[in-house]
């Protein structure tokens, strides 16, 4: 039985002691079969499960589809910025206090996009786990409490996916991008490769196994409209709190991690002293600051934690934090629009890099887009969709890229994709 659209149910709230590990709780809820669509979203110290569909906003290239309780499904054309289409759709919500969860495709930033650009739900049921307590709100709270009582670590034996394939094709793409950089067409571009998984996958078990081995900035697990994904995002794209404070965390510059203390220390020194990696990071931070200046009070824009090393599963990155306060008249959707797609997942200048990616790779979909949560009070949190597994229509795949600049070499950039794919490839659990 699925928990779907209900307009006659009175929302309830339960707060329970939760002895089980939050990861086990999220996996138990996701694999329970009680919900149709769902999203799991982990932030530092807090996990949220959003299940069932009370409201829904789906943005396609030609129309926005909106469903609210008590109202008929509405579909209308849109024009202009896709972020404005989302803002207007949620502004029309009849639900006074709502939280929305979902994803945005990379093509959200393409001038003439095709396909699905975003899918977000306002759930029937939310479960938030933090500090040993579970807060259950919405429909079916008692039933959900029963699931929490028997949450246990997820079973499943991974079948590692070989990441060292498609080398020649990817190296050729990198060489083409380097040539275009030397021609002055752009400064940096992220070139990625797709790795098909040769068997069907258990997405929930893969999430559980992979989360045990990763140290993400955010993690996520979702099933929306038949598209499933599980990932361990290394990077915050944009957060906006209810008071309008905006933060982004560009990561650029990569080396392998997890080979032992001595090897990790050596690669860390390489990362911190490699001119190519330092340049790649510095230009990414500069771009993030320029984007924040477009939507924030300029006097509030700043950089902190400049070029510190962040350990993210099988890799380590150079990372910085850029922040500001929204200018009067600006909304969280404006902040998301300014920072999307992430500079570290697209390139510099962004419009030229996006054009090159579309030409070199075709449609990316969720990869290098964002998983997003938004709220009626103006808060928004989003993470880059990287280090993820995707599954749809019986097919599963992984994807990873590397930042290409004038000093890039095809062999090193291919090796970087292998390092990044190793954050998820060893933990794929067959179905």
Key traits:
431 residues, alpha+beta, Anthranilate synthase, 2 domains, 12-stranded antiparallel sheet, 11-stranded antiparallel sheet, 23 strands
Structure description:
- The protein has about 425 residues and is an alpha+beta fold.
- It has two domains: about 10-150, no CATH class; about 165-425, Anthranilate synthase.
- The protein is built from ten helices and 23 strands.
- The chain has helices spanning about 20-30, 80-90, 140-150, 165-180, 205-215, 260-275, 275-295, 330-340, 350-360, 410-420; strands spanning about 10-15, 40-45, 45-50, 55-60, 65, 75, 100-105, 115-120, 125-130, 135-140, 190-195, 220-225, 225-235, 235-240, 245-250, 250-255, 300-310, 315-325, 345-350, 370-375, 380-385, 390, 395-405.
- Strands 4, 5, 6, 7, 8, 14, 15, 16, 17, 18, 20 and 21 form a twelve-stranded antiparallel beta sheet that branches. The chain has an eleven-stranded antiparallel beta sheet with strand order 1-10-9-3-2-12-13-22-23-11-19, sandwiched between helices.
- Strand 9 (about 125-130) and strand 10 (about 135-140) form a beta hairpin.
- Helix 1 runs antiparallel to helix 5.
- It is globular and about 60 Å long.
- About 55% of the residues are buried.
- Mean pLDDT is about 90; it is low at about 1-10.
